[in-house]
Amino acid sequence: MAETLSQMIPLGAIAPDFLLPDTVTGRTFGLQDLKGDKGTIVMFICNHCPYVLHVKDQLIAIAKEYKDKGIATIAISANDVQNYPDDAPDKMKALMEAWGRPFAAYLYDESQDAARAYKAACTPDIYLFDAALACVYRGRLDGSTPKNEVPLTGADLRAALDNLLAGRTIDPQQIPSMGCNIKWKAD
Questions:
Q1: Residue 20 sits in which domain range?
Q2: Which CATH number do you get for residue 42?
Q3: Residue 158 lies in a domain
Q4: What is the pLDDT of residues 113-132, one digit of tens each?
Q5: Which in 44, 110, 118, 155 has the greatest CB count within 10 A?
Q6: pTM of the predicted model, to two decimals?
Q7: Does 28 reside within a domain?
Q8: Nearest in space to 128 (alpha carbons), one of 115, 141, 143
Q9: Is residue 186 domain-resident?
Q10: Which of 125, 117, 113 is nearest to 45 (CA)?
Q11: For the chain, how many structural domains are there in total?
């Protein structure tokens, strides 16, 4: 698994729409169906990535804490399940059940079109959009990785969320997320 940095879409970019199946409910959703009243987190994750597993407690805590504040959290997996069967939809559903279903949805991007539209590169790859679905943050959760001793706090994403909700400017100097590369299908 190659350590990869996120590509950092431009701030102000409008969130690309999608139409993807939710592995928990079996329903198909578009971005408009799931977005939050005050903001939306879209994150590309997968079941087996050690970076995702390292930050999962903060991802869950942030999703739950900010849901009541008008922020929706949408998780998407775009990995090639042929070569990475641990990321298959049935396993995605089981993972969300084990995690307590903290997200608005855990969507499966079989075509990988949504991942390409978002320029997703790694897991986790995290984006925060305002109420108008303009990108206000894209980058890391915090400075913690499975390879360092930095405490896991979610500080970078939490600061962006708190500033968004308070109507304050979000620092445009943002640090890319780092994780395993998305497992792209062979062309």
A1: 3-181
A2: 3.40.30.10
A3: yes
A4: 999 999 999 999 999 999 99
A5: 44
A6: 0.97
A7: yes
A8: 141
A9: no
A10: 125
A11: 1
